[in-house]
Amino acid sequence: MRYVGIDPSTKTGFVALDEEGQVQRAKELTGIGDIDPKRITTLVGEVIAHIKPGDFIAVEGFSYNSQGRGIGFQFGIGYAIRIALYSRNIPYIEVSPGQLKKFATGKGNTPKDKMPSPIQENWGFTDRSDNVLDAYVLARCVQAYKNFDGMLFRLTDYQREVIETIISPQPKSKPKKKKKAK
Length: 182
Description:
Structural class: alpha/beta
Low-confidence stretches: none
CATH topology: Nucleotidyltransferase, domain 5
Mean pLDDT: 92
InterPro entries: RNaseH-like_sf (IPR012337), RNaseH_sf (IPR036397)
Distance between the termini: 63 Å
CATH superfamily: Ribonuclease H-like superfamily/Ribonuclease H
Order of helices and strands: EEEHEHEHHHHH
Helix content: 40-55%
Strand order of the largest sheet: 3-2-1-4-5
Number of helices: 7
Protein name: Holliday junction resolvase RuvC
Oligomer: single chain
CATH architecture: 2-Layer Sandwich
C-alpha cells in the first residue's frame, strides 16, 4: 500500500509514500515533446505507469484563478489524468490548491515560494521542484485521509480541518434568486 500525490501540470509532480510515510518515489513527469495531444497522452501514460494496485491517490484540484499560456494545458492534463484513473476504476480524492497549502503551512493562500520551508519543517522533505513538493503534500493528505482516526493526534489543528473538510465537504449554497422588478 502506498500514498500517492499527483500535481497535474506541464511538469507533473508525482510522489509515492510507503505505509510509514517514507518516500518511495518522487519525480517530475513531463511526457514526450511539446506538441499536444502527444505530450498530454504520453504524460498521462507516465503517471499511470507509476501507479500500483492498492495505491491511495490524491490529485490536486484545479486552480480556477490561474492565468497565462499554460492554463489550457493544465486543465487538459488535469482532466486527462482524472479520466485515466476513472476508466481504470482507480479511486482518488481531490485536494484543492487552498487545502494543499493550508495542510502544509496553516494558511490556504501561501505563495508558492513560501511552501518549501514549512514542508521541510513538518516532514523533513525537500525538492527543487514545486510540483514535487505539492505532490508530496498531496501524498501526506491522502495518508491522513485514509488513516484519519489513527492520525488524529499527530495532525495539527489546521491539518485536521483540511481532512475533515475533504471527508465531509460543506454543500455549496445556492445563489438567491433575484426578485423581478415591477
